[in-house]
Amino acid sequence: MISEKAVLDTFMYHAIYIPEGVALPPFDIIYQPDLQIYVKDFGEQKGDVCYVAECEGKIIGAVWVRIMNDYGHVSDDMPSLAISLLPEYRNNGIGTALMKKMLSSLRELGYKGVSLSVQKQNYACSMYKKLGFKTIQEKDEEYIMVYSM
Predict the structure, then answer these.
(1) pLDDT of 94-133, one tens digit each?
(2) Can you tell me the mean pLDDT for 43-53?
(3) Alpha-carbon distance 122 to 102, whole Å?
């Protein structure tokens, strides 16, 4: 059985946007402090919520939120979102299904919104827009987006 920590470490790595033609970074990049805030001691903080997608008994994707001061931080009462799928399962609607489940859950939990940071070149930008995320801040290479419940 795979531990929760190993699952989130794996999907944290796959959540890192790597432009086409750029070499993948080493796996241990996820241990940098600015990335560890997404996964360290996950489940121990109020507001930690995670869902996974499985295919034939294998976890193929994860979406998780946490109230943290990350790249997509907007306020101390709004969780930040991270999502990733194993590369071979992308572009099949799985990410959208995970996102809809998370948004529904956050609404039921009484949150007013959820934020995220996404690289402008990331193909996932179109998914976020289709789901109703709005860009509230544009930086050189990324958007800060919010979904309002």
Answers:
(1) 999 999 999 999 999 999 999 999 999 998 999 999 999 9
(2) 93
(3) 20
Instruction: List the 58-66 sheet strands across, edge first.
Output: 49-55, 58-66, 80-85, 113-119, 142-148, 134-138
Confidence of residue 13 (pLDDT cuts 50, 70, 90): very high
Region 14-39: mean pLDDT is 93
Closest CA to 80 of 35, 117, 111: 117
Residue 31 CB coordination number (10 Å): 13
Mutual orientation of helices 94-108 and 124-131 as an angle, nearest 10°?
Answer: 40
Collapsing DSSP to helix, strand or coil, 80 comes out as strand
- Separation CA 147–CA 128 (nearest Å): 9
Distance CA 120, CA 139 (A): 9
pLDDT reported for residue 3: 61
CB 99 within 8 A of CB 50: no
Alpha helices in 45-114 (DSSP H): 94-108
| Alpha helix stretches (DSSP H) within the chain | 4-15, 33-36, 94-108, 124-131
Whole-model pTM above 0.85?
A: yes
